[in-house]
Amino acid sequence: MIVVMQGSSAVEEVQLVIERMVELGFNVHRTTGVDQVILAGVGSPSHFDVAEFSVLPGVQEAYRISSPYKLAGRSFRPEGTRITFPNGVVVGGEQVTMMAGPCSVESREQILMSAKLAAKAGCQFLRGGAFKPRSSPYSFQGMGLEGLKLLREVTDETGLLVITEVMEISQIELMLPYIDCFQVGARNMQNFNLLRELGHVRKPVLMKRGIAATIEEVLLSAEYILSGGNYDLMLCERGIRTFETYTRNTYDVSAIPVLKKLTHLPVFGDPSHGVGKREFVPPLALASVAAGADGLLLEMHPNPEKAMSDGAQSLYPEQLETLVAQLRLLAPVVGRTVA
Amino acid sequence: MIVVMQGSSAVEEVQLVIERMVELGFNVHRTTGVDQVILAGVGSPSHFDVAEFSVLPGVQEAYRISSPYKLAGRSFRPEGTRITFPNGVVVGGEQVTMMAGPCSVESREQILMSAKLAAKAGCQFLRGGAFKPRSSPYSFQGMGLEGLKLLREVTDETGLLVITEVMEISQIELMLPYIDCFQVGARNMQNFNLLRELGHVRKPVLMKRGIAATIEEVLLSAEYILSGGNYDLMLCERGIRTFETYTRNTYDVSAIPVLKKLTHLPVFGDPSHGVGKREFVPPLALASVAAGADGLLLEMHPNPEKAMSDGAQSLYPEQLETLVAQLRLLAPVVGRTVA
Amino acid sequence: MIVVMQGSSAVEEVQLVIERMVELGFNVHRTTGVDQVILAGVGSPSHFDVAEFSVLPGVQEAYRISSPYKLAGRSFRPEGTRITFPNGVVVGGEQVTMMAGPCSVESREQILMSAKLAAKAGCQFLRGGAFKPRSSPYSFQGMGLEGLKLLREVTDETGLLVITEVMEISQIELMLPYIDCFQVGARNMQNFNLLRELGHVRKPVLMKRGIAATIEEVLLSAEYILSGGNYDLMLCERGIRTFETYTRNTYDVSAIPVLKKLTHLPVFGDPSHGVGKREFVPPLALASVAAGADGLLLEMHPNPEKAMSDGAQSLYPEQLETLVAQLRLLAPVVGRTVA
Amino acid sequence: MIVVMQGSSAVEEVQLVIERMVELGFNVHRTTGVDQVILAGVGSPSHFDVAEFSVLPGVQEAYRISSPYKLAGRSFRPEGTRITFPNGVVVGGEQVTMMAGPCSVESREQILMSAKLAAKAGCQFLRGGAFKPRSSPYSFQGMGLEGLKLLREVTDETGLLVITEVMEISQIELMLPYIDCFQVGARNMQNFNLLRELGHVRKPVLMKRGIAATIEEVLLSAEYILSGGNYDLMLCERGIRTFETYTRNTYDVSAIPVLKKLTHLPVFGDPSHGVGKREFVPPLALASVAAGADGLLLEMHPNPEKAMSDGAQSLYPEQLETLVAQLRLLAPVVGRTVA
């Protein structure tokens, strides 16, 4: 920690800050400039709140310098994390991972058709929600357990892996037999109890960035899962909330290379939620891979106009096929491949 | 719903939109202008997604006109909601409700002192967290059940009511015997499963606005609780995330009169989290009541420098006393009182 | 400046950073911790860009510690700035300054009536635009010089002072004979050429915060005017742009006490632009004074429904009168008065 | 315009709204539903403010349906705008236009070297500021006229075109003899007087999106230039301000395809300002072209560590070369070429 004292700070104020730092376990190095005193605290006390120093009398600014996440940091595993799934699919390697499917599981027919279309287009994962977080209590809330069973059934048939959203601790046990990967939605990125439980599970997790989460908060939430012992974690940019309302969110493509630098975890992009209108999904999907994404999470529906949720941002099956074809050409430009 | 067609839309495109609207159960009224066709859908189909219309061919814009919340709307209870607590305290009446206390329960001594100080300053509620949502898994996570027991004990002793945060469905049962009011934190405002459960409880709830939640989303989340049958709900502004970083959040004082207009539910302000630095809490607390708040939620600690969390934004006990004295003078200007 | 090196930084990387700092004129103090090297640069080189250090190899983070504004800082004039106008009105003293009037000067009749109503309600200034910045080139752009003459005429008649917006360097000369105070609008807060010219004028200026300006940027823009020698400067919060769209902007009441702490300049609030709907202006005006504002800038129109711009946020004359009456009661609570 | 009345609105309130609409020149079509009255105003009155309707008694919501810009809209020129420069370079065609150079002109040697490097890497334009908008009055403010002359000199020598920023009306005349394209910076996107003057010039303009400008505001500002008769206009995304501070701004890649849909004007990307750190510029440059950009504006400096401004985000010459090489491979995937 570094504490910069005000130019006008009194000797006693400096003294008080030093005492507090020492109390916490810091070794304090003092630099006395012409204008200001600077105190550098060396050491890593397990518990301190930099904000508390910033309001002490005579303090101008206090900075935390040690990064508050350890396991999520790139230096923990400089070579990058690779996750190998039961069927041999590897996430985080040279190949860009493609996940596609409808927002919600709606019926056996719909989800089977979705799986076939996703497989045909070259995807490795089928996405589809069985439990749905909806802003309104009057909206469709998902098929629940029945939906999970259908997901397993149709992916077994098509050779895909299943990723689906978990909203609640009590759903974890229920889901385990049916799925290959848990998805934590943006609204639950700071549901710390849920994250902690997922840290104890032995099944990969893809965690989406919260709608107002900073990069640092994404990594701190990742830390909750990693510190429980589950290292098979993927992160996913899906758009942040800004003043711009033409798109559903502002899809922060720059978060992809930034996260790739800061963490060893694979980084996905979800342009469907990022922009919210299907016509803009393909250009942003291309942009994501151009910017270094390890994978894409895309909404696709056999019949988007009839979708029970998020139809407006779901690709038509042909759009997905065309997009994957473009990605196959684009990926090699940035040293990647697409199946 | 209203659908505005593009100037250049084809007859078949208009026809398709009309068919979709009819399918959903709308009566469609068509206005043909010189430039554009406008379709007004009359009726209230239980399920439709306005975004799906906005991406249909030939559509310029689609607007939902019926408000998506019903029970939370002001017209549901124009006179406003009043909540009466066991000891006779009424929230939502003429008197502004004061809730104060530390971020976390840390020890018997600390919480007892907090309760005494809050009572002495004229507060009706003691706040204090037993379960803490912390961005980092390495921060203090609260005393749990032990904390709940202490809260009950010291408020019984001082005649205060207890409000404390619930983070997880499994904590609800645990908390019921010890508390007077559940607090839903900003990070859980869209934890819909938790909200739904709180709708089935017969104990008041204070729900904070999410850090990136629009006013409409606040009311939709309220709808989850109300639609379960729990009408004893209070809302609380606590700052939103913006580009400004000097304050911890941007405390949106305007949300207070806006919510008072849109809903019958009592509206609180939490300037402690709103600004994050104790010196700015009193001016913003005064501003909140001047703007029409029904109550305040304030962090106060007997010894803020030693607080285990949020010390920087916790008032000194004397600051709280001075503030309440000022509020007693200010409240009558806007037709309210402070005890 | 403080430069925190990465844990893994090489000796040569540290050396390079030190050389750069020395080149710029810093005295460098080095703290070598267990994990990291910290370099504190003491001294105030006239030109350096902290961002350039943050991208040097081996650097984790670089912080500027000296505040980049000098004349605007509170310490430059701890007692606070008071501005005395020709008719004896003092801004920045105990009395809260009231400025009111229509968005635009529309006609002699309209502006005369506005002046009479503002004077009757107890205001010291008449506001009204002669040159209007409008988002659309097809909107009403103001009466120009004719409007300036009318402003002078009706204020001479009513004993008020005139404040009006300047958009362009060439308008400064034109305005000087007619006005008492220049207003710099939010869109021009970073029109540095305009600010520099206003620094050379001997007439007070009220500068509004830009819609996306941080507190620090407000103070840097103030510095442009102050460094030209014009110390008669007032700042004005008027709402920032956030994700919330129910209000026109998010009126950042907390900026008022924050600015009061950081600078000696008087701080105003403009809740009319802050919220954009007249019914919310009075509660936010009260909140602004409760939070410490030195004055208010309010839109009021004799007939808001007929206003040529901003009618929706203009107060009815009676609303202004009621508001001032409430402010007279509220101001003493925070040690102020209202005329 | 569409006005949706509240369910509880009185007959007189509906009547009043209708009268106002008729007064403005609208033909009013009324739809009476079970719950609500909807009023559709057909026609295009030259002046009206939708916000004024939204605050009339009994009104729930009012929507403007005609787009407020005409000349900037895609339908004005569906085939897209192409701008041909004196040396034959075409912007808005199949070839992606590359503009690169330092933030500021600093010396003859520096700008000549920059021009040679930009030309060698395959760029068509040299960028470089002679007049600099700087947040602090104490920062380097540019070389002025001398800088303009140097720009012309070195581009004549290297066969490049010159683009440079104009900050002030009085600079327009001064610049005309030396430059090929005016650049309007983000801070001046709503300097309407400047835009209006640029509408009267016969020289192309590239206008950057303001840091807090919505897509609609970008197009309204474009309208100022177009309505003056200057159709040679390019738009440029350069990052918006959000809560995320790791990057200098949040570079909104999605604005590129959105603008391409809404307007016929060529759309550029400026990832240098978008992200602010050079290592993230190449991935975002690739993303921009993948998303459909017509051109890129990049900061490159022969010696970024010695740059007098924006060094941290300036590419090394070799980085620019490598990037252009990658773009040559990527562009064909989206039907474009790079020289």
Give the CATH H-level superfamily of the largest domain in chain A.
Aldolase class I
The domain tally of chain A reads 2
Helicity range of chain A: 25-40%
What is the subunit organization of this protein?
A: homotetramer
Distance linking N and C termini of chain A: 47 Å
Tell me which protein chains meet in the greatest interface and how many residues each side has.
A-B, 54 and 54 residues
| SSE order of chain A, one letter for each helix or strand | EHEEHEEEEHEHEHEHEHEHEHHEHE
Largest β-sheet summary of chain A: 8 strands, parallel, barrel
Main sheet: strand order of chain A: 7-8-9-10-11-12-13-14
Rg on CA atoms of chain A, Å: 23 Å
Shape of chain A: elongated
CATH fold topology of the largest domain in chain A:
TIM Barrel
Summing up helix and strand content along with how strands pair, one would put the structural category of chain A as alpha/beta
The total count of strands of chain A amounts to 15
CATH architectural grouping of the largest domain in chain A = Alpha-Beta Barrel
What integer is the average pLDDT of chain A?
A: 94
The number of helical segments of chain A is: 11
Strand content of chain A: 15-25%
CATH class of the largest domain in chain A: Alpha Beta
Low-confidence stretches of chain A: none
